[in-house]
Every structure is written in structure tokens, then in C-alpha cells.
Amino acid sequence: MNNPRLLVFLSILVIFLAIAACGKKAPPFLSESTFSTGVNDLTGEWDKGEILLKGSILPPLESGETADLVKGARVYYAQYPLEEAPCAECPVAFHGYDTLDQEVIIEGDFLCRMPGKDQGKVYFFKVHLIGAEGAMGPPSNTAKIVVE
Fold first, then answer.
1. Domain spans of the chain?
2. What does the pLDDT look like over 59-118, one tens digit per residue?
3. Gap between the Cα atoms of 114 and 85, Å rounded
4. Residue 7: beta bridge partners?
5. At the fourth CATH level, which superfamily is domain 38-147?
6. Does an H or E element contain 128, and which?
7. Could you give the angle at the alpha carbon of 121 between the alpha carbons of 57 and 80, nearest 5°?
8. Which of 3, 44, 48, 147 is the most buried (most CB within 10 A)?
9. pTM attached to this predicted model
């Protein structure tokens, strides 16, 4: 092995193989906590400087189950000027989300207020309910609210 190029190549190869071999090796598995409760028919309306989001819960919850199953919600949002809002068929790029660690199920329906919203904008919202241990339910439909 008097060839220095071969030694460099083999050294680099051994380093890359060692790096690739690092980490936990285990068979893939599904998360044990599944949460299938979600918001259906999400709508919103402008109400005195806030947007009030409403929707029904699927599958419907018994009144005693609400406190045990639903721990809050993650509300994704997007805001656009009126003249720059995406078309009805266009995908919406959500800018961020708020996590609500409060009671969002009122009398069997989803209800929350999103404060600090300006007039002259178009808002889009999508909701995931949060269950025990942070498991998120399926996404709601996207609600579009025009605040003129």
C-alpha cells in the first residue's frame, strides 16, 4: 500500500461509513397514542376586533369526555392584504400557529377567539385538536374570513 491516493480514499470511505452507522437502530413503529377527534365545518366571523372560529366536533363527544380527551387546539393561520389574497383553488401558505391550552369545546362544539386581527385583511385558519400527551387530531377544513 504505497499509493497515498488509495489510502486517502479508504480513510474517507471508513469515516463516512462510521458516520452513517451512528444512531439508534430499531424497527419502525407507529405511535401508540392516536387521536381521531377533529373539527368539522370550520367557519369564522369578525366580532369586535377578534375573529370567532366555530365548528362541529367529529366524532361527537359525550359531555364528560370533553375534559378528558381534548386538551386544547393548534390553530394555523395566514393573513393577506385584500388585494393579494390567494384564489379559491390556490393552496394557502400558513405563516404560523397558536397553541391554545384552554377549553375550546363549548357545549359539544369547537369555539375559540383569535384576538389582535386587523381590518382590511383576508385570514385563513386551520385547526387541529390536541389530545392527551400532545397527540394531534386530523386537520379541519380551511376557513377563509374577509375582514373589510
1. 38-147
2. 877 655 655 688 899 999 999 999 988 887 889 999 899 999 878 888 888 999 988 778
3. 19
4. none
5. Immunoglobulins (2.60.40.10)
6. strand 121-130
7. 85
8. 44
9. 0.73
